[in-house]
Structures are given as structure tokens and as C-alpha cells.
Amino acid sequence: MNKSELKNFGKPDEVRVFPQGRLELVKIGGATVGRAIFEPGWRWSTSVQPLVKTKSREAPHFQYHVSGVLRVKMDDGSEFDCRTGDVSLIPSGHDAWVMGDEPAVVVDFQGMVDYAKAR
Question: CB-hemisphere CA count at 13 Å for 82?
Fold first, then answer.
């Protein structure tokens, strides 16, 4: 890396909209960072799964949780909640949904390159 870069989610390089959610992508330093806004009622298996046609989320995530509560259920049945200020590492093979009436906003440093792309 031999030059500085500065990007802002206010002017993302790409935006993907799906039922009850939105993904904003910025490309910087050879990487893609995503900010996802999941509205109350959003659930991966009903909002995104019909687009991608996989049994569960196949990409891992490395996320910072900006706001809201996101419940994650792994394919093995284990569940946990990600809350404001949390940093999570979520392997492939999961479902997730918004808990409560506040949008869940996450910044993801891994796993959003192909997120919500129709197959």
C-alpha cells in the first residue's frame, strides 16, 4: 500500500436493496467493507435466502455491531445475540434476524462481497 484512501458510507460504491434491508459497500485498499441496515422483521432466511437459494448463510462474517440486536442461529442449533458495541466472528452456516423494534446496523469486514446477490 503506497497511498492513503478515504471512503464514506454516505457515498457507497454499491448499494443492494432486499426485503426489509439494505447493504452499502465501499471498496478500499483492495478490500470490500459492507454496512448492512436490517429493519425490524428482517430475517436472512425470508429476506435474502430466496435471492441466493442456499440452505443457510454460507459466508463467514467479521462484524462490528453499530446498533440494534441481531440474533444468530448456527446450523448446529446454537444461538446468540449480537448487540451494540459487540464485535462478532460468525462462521458459515447460520440464519440471523432482528430482535425488537430497532434496526440492526452492522459493519462487516468479511463476507459481504456476494451478499444478497441473486443466483
Answer: 27
